[in-house]
Amino acid sequence: MSNLLGKGLIDGLVVTAKNFVGSYFDGNRKDRLFTYQYPEERMKLPENSRTFPFLVYDGTPDQLRCTACKICETECPPQCIYIVMERDANGKPLQRPRVFDIDISVCMQCGICAEVCPFNAIKMDCDFERSKHGRFEDLLVHLPELLKSNEYYHQIKSAEATRVDATRKPTKKPAAGTKPEKI
Amino acid sequence: MSATGIIETQTLEVSLGPQHPSTHGVFRMDVVLDGEYVVKLKPVMGYLHRNHEQIAEKIAWIANMPYTDRLDYFCSMTNNWAYALAVEKMAGLKVPERAEYIRVIMAELTRLLNHSCAIGFLLSDCGAWFTPVLYALRERERILDFFETVSGARMMCNYMRFGGVRVDLDDQSLAMARDIVARWPAFLDEFEKLMTENEVLIARTQRVGILPRELAINASITGPMARASGVEYDIRKVDKYGVYDRFDFRVPVGEAGDTFDRYMIRILEMREAVKILEQALRDIPAGPFIAPEAKLRNFKVPAGDGYGRIEAPKGELGFYLVSEGGAKPYRYHVRPPSFINLTILEDMCLGQKVADTVIILGSVDIVLGEVDR
């Protein structure tokens, strides 16, 4: 402890002054100014970053990877996914979703759906600008809005997407009756 | 004025919170004041109650992992670890060595993050309006960036898995962690120069809110609060969970148990955490980051009960779990450190001035997500 009363105060003020002046003149001023001027300047999010799930398709949107197996629906911690499987005229299941809704107001962005999916069909997006005008209907995201191409997936998470492509079988969709891969 | 010539006074009841900016979150203190001195204080909790334990009993073991992030939202990594530790104990899962090291790195970085913010906000309560907090947040940002690079989220990391961790640390992120650790002592020196010897801080915090050693033990206070009162109790040393027995570090212990000691103990703990981090980042072995027998879906825990506890930055964080052998817990109980530490608030505040209650509350370092669950 200092003997001179007020020395601690002045020392502290020297530190703040150094930081204030340094934020203008220091060579490493990026160390002091870690903020981004948001709408003009956007930070590049890391690849692992996750905000909200999306459904991957190969090529055209009807070549959906999702088989409506409902694993993500059961595993989702806050139970925000709702899936109905498509059926043909005879009532035979077609292994693709007719309804795939995610409630954005309930989703807590944990990424467990993407982790448990055996078909690599549902992945986590990096897009964080998802505010809507409505409070109820707008926040229920339906199937068409969830669809994103594999190219988009490569764009946002190239390393992970390349890894996924390498592990995926060449067939677009597993034939009926095949078991999902073990996790 | 009465006939005897003495002014008759009345006590005044003031409700501090839940919306007062100086209360850390939605927490209310019903204070009875005699003049400026506190004669009675009643902590009122429950404004943020969201049924955490009941929800956990309805969902799968793993599905509860993201919910534990939301207990103490400053330290999601340690919350994950405590829960994973309890389940691993019950399921008999062995964690690979690399995963243990990664967990130590994450937990100690969380400690740096939590303590720097805790003392920053404590100083903010003292009236150093937001300058120390911004210094702390500036450094915390590096750790949050690191967490985002590794786990995908800044605060709600959801990183640990039963039997390991979710994502491995690659060389790039290890270099990032080393950079953070290398910078931290310089930040601590700057921060200490900024505040520690400040006469106003010393006048405001020394001999304020004294927590005697016996009371701390009797009230089962843990963490930095207990150590500031002279209780040498650190679960990293007592339990030696994980790989903490391999690291050389000391447990700082205070003497007076006042608010200044609780401030100082956090700075000293950060210095020790830097030591642990340096060793962990030096010695981290190669190998798998999750146990091969660990699985995500259809995970069942044998019937029985288990208690996993770790030294979270705020104190002893424990998860008591009962399993019936099924896919979800039968009983799930959290022992949150800041809730238990808060029970002693009245004893520390009695006889103090009303302005000091705010500082004392700040020195307890509570997070309401954990207190109310």
Short description:
By secondary structure, chain A is α+β, with helices and mostly antiparallel strands. Chain A is built from six helices and six strands.
Question: How would you characterize this protein structure?
Answer:
The complex is a heterodimer of chains A (183) and B (373). Chain A has two domains: 34 residues; 115 residues, Alpha-Beta Plaits, CATH 3.30.70.3270. In chain A, 27% of the residues lie in helices and 17% in strands. With 183 residues, chain A is of the alpha+beta class. In chain A, helix 5 crosses helix 6. Chain B has 373 residues and is α+β, with helices and mostly antiparallel strands. Chain B has two domains: 49 residues, no CATH class; 314 residues, Cytochrome-c3 Hydrogenase, chain B (Orthogonal Bundle), CATH 1.10.645.10. In chain B, 47% of the residues lie in helices and 13% in strands.
